[in-house]
Write a structure and sequence with these properties.
Pfam families: NAD_binding_9. This protein is of the alpha/beta class. It has three domains: about 10-60 and about 105-170 and about 390-470, FAD/NAD(P)-binding domain (3-Layer(bba) Sandwich), CATH 3.50.50; about 180-240 and about 325-380, FAD/NAD(P)-binding domain; about 260-320, no CATH class. The chain has helices at about 20-35, 50-55, 80-85, 90-95, 105-120, 125-130, 215-225, 260-280, 285-290, 295-300, 305-320, 325-340, 395-405, 445, 450-470; strands at about 15, 40-45, 130-135, 135-140, 145-150, 155-160, 160-165, 185-190, 205-210, 230-235, 340-355, 360-365, 375, 380, 425, 430-435. Flavin-adenine dinucleotide binds near residues 22, 43, 53, 136 and 397.
């Protein structure tokens, strides 16, 4: 038998692009699973590692929408986050009494992830294995046996494998005939941008595009900064996220099997919710019962049903599945009751603005109406949720990977096409042994890959896969 060349563990290195929750957690799991000589290089373009868009908010009114008891970074230690919270001093907790059902500020979760990185770096053997690099990855190129990552300032890093943990991209602008308004300073394309709410006259009318969780965050920020002017939130269906059930969702009776035809499943969920209501329960338990098998359902469903789901049911799923905490829901309801916040359903048709500093009239067609309507505002903020259609995302790294055929968008435009092992599929359908993805980038294959409980399992799984790839196998003689 001939001898075969095996990866040299002394030189094995894995680069992770993006140090939000997904990339950072993957790095932590890799340190625990891969051979000690493996280098784990975590690259982040922003100053903060471990936070990403979700957990870098400085606003303490931006609460987690999942209770502390379900936000552990580790599936096998479900109360890790809660225990960390409980270990904090009273001064750090600022009046929060942490319990499993408490919704704490999101920035505390970012602090927890950073604490986990610091802990790992103190482990003598892991401290040397993990390299944190501040930089913007603009290209990845196969180099004959590995990969070369190009970073800003003409830097390069070589690695055996790379994982895209690039998270969410800013929302796409609604298509209109004349998009000139999108160049106006009155239009804010990125809800997380530093200038989005800056220099805003507190009495100025504002339009928020979208009615989901990002819109809720923006309303909370506006109220916190003392905004008095009218706020209009507009989306195609005008649905806002529901609130979590007071005192927890409870549990639904165990189900023997779940149908995978969309219409049958929808009917089953409806009747299950009605049954729950008759025994004093709520639909929350029915939705929560689906959580552990959502990915299985998605993968078992035919493509036509997945398309039907995205076209017709997605907004209902999103608003029932991704809910808001009671305190946040109370503020939103109060703003609606006072008339300051108006939620409208419709599609934007055009913008009319006389000069870049003038107010803009946003013309839209209300849902189920023939007549156009309009709202005149001083600022339009796009809160429509992340753009996941990689065929139009302008990010240089994405463009180059697609241009070289190293990656392709998934068929439903939810992210990049990956296998169930998180390996990227190239333009020709080939499965990469060097390029992988984790987190929301993989939604096309996994659907629910948004919240911490889903991402933590995926990160752990992928770390196991990658560790097996870099671990030396038995030498064939
Ligand atoms: C506002 C908000 C609130 C949320 N709240 C909750 C919650 O309460 N509970 C819950 O379970 N889930 C919540 N989620 C969902 C979930 O936790 C996040 O989507 C998750 O954090 C995604 O992490 P990520 O690392 O994949 O992406 P991101 O957080 O977007 O991080 C990606 C990182 O990659 C970096 N990056 C991108 N491209 C490059 C590049 N080319 N080079 C270098 N760096 C790059 C970015 O700078 C960024 O830091 C929330 C999400 C959002 C957006």
């Amino acid at each position: 038998m001939s001898s075969s060349t095996l990866p040299d563990p002394a030189s094995a290195s894995i680069a992770i692009v993006g140090a939000g929750f997904s990339g950072t957690l993957l790095a932590l799991h890799l340190l625990q699973r891969s051979p000690p000589q493996t280098r784990v290089i975590l690259i982040e373009r922003n100053a903060q590692f471990g936070r990403g868009a979700a957990y870098s908010t400085g606003n303490s009114s931006h609460l987690l929408n999942v209770p502390a008891g379900k936000m552990s970074a580790f599936h096998s230690r479900p109360l890790d986050f809660l225990h960390w919270l409980q270990s904090l001093s009273e001064a750090d907790l600022c009046g929060i009494v942490p319990g499993p059902g408490t919704f704490v500020p999101r920035r505390m979760f970012g602090r927890y992830i950073r604490h986990l990185v610091n802990l790992e770096m103190k482990v003598p053997e892991h401290g040397d294995q993990l390299e944190l690099v501040r930089g913007d990855v603009t290209d990845i190129e196969p180099n004959g046996g590995g990969l070369t990552l190009t970073l800003d300032r003409n830097r390069t890093i070589t690695a055996d494998r790379a994982v895209l943990a690039t998270g969410n991209f800013p929302p796409a602008a609604p298509p209109v005939e004349d998009p000139a308004f999108y160049d106006s300073p009155a239009y804010k394309p990125d809800p997380w941008g530093p200038d989005t709410l800056a220099d805003l006259d507190p009495d100025m009318p504002v339009l928020l595009i979208g009615t989901g969780l990002t819109t809720i965050d923006t309303i909370v920020s506006l109220l916190d900064q003392g905004h008095r002017g009218p706020i209009t939130a507009l989306s195609r269906r005008g649905l806002m996220p529901h609130r979590h059930a007071a005192g927890g969702a409870g549990s639904a009776p165990e189900t023997d099997s779940f149908p995978t035809r969309l219409n049958v499943l929808t009917r089953a969920l409806r009747s299950s919710s009605l049954r729950q209501a008759t025994i004093g329960g709520s639909w929350h338990a029915v939705i929560d019962e689906l959580r552990p098998i959502t990915t299985e359902l998605w993968q078992a469903m035919c493509t036509a049903d997945r398309q039907r789901f995205l076209r017709h049911l997605r907004p209902w799923w999103d608003t029932h599945r991704h809910r808001v905490s009671g305190p946040v829901a109370d503020r939103i309801e109060a703003a609606r009751a006072s008339g300051q916040l108006r939620v409208r359903a419709g599609r934007i048709r055009s913008y009319r603005q006389d000069g870049p500093d003038a107010e803009v009239e946003v013309v839209f067609r209300p849902r189920f109406a023939d007549e156009l309507d309009s709202v005149t505002v001083g600022r339009v903020i796009n809160c429509a949720g992340p753009d996941a259609d990689y065929s139009r995302i302008r990010d240089p790294l994405v463009r180059r990977l697609l241009g070289k055929g190293l990656a392709r968008p998934d068929a439903l435009c939810l992210g990049l096409d990956v296998t169930t092992n998180c390996a990227l599929l190239g333009a020709d359908g080939s499965i990469s042994r060097r390029l992988f993805a984790v987190g929301p980038v993989t939604k096309g294959t996994f659907w629910e890959m948004t919240a911490v409980p889903d991402i933590r399992q995926q990160a752990e799984f992928l770390a196991g896969q990658l560790a097996a790839l870099v671990r030396p196998g038995p030498v064939l003689a």
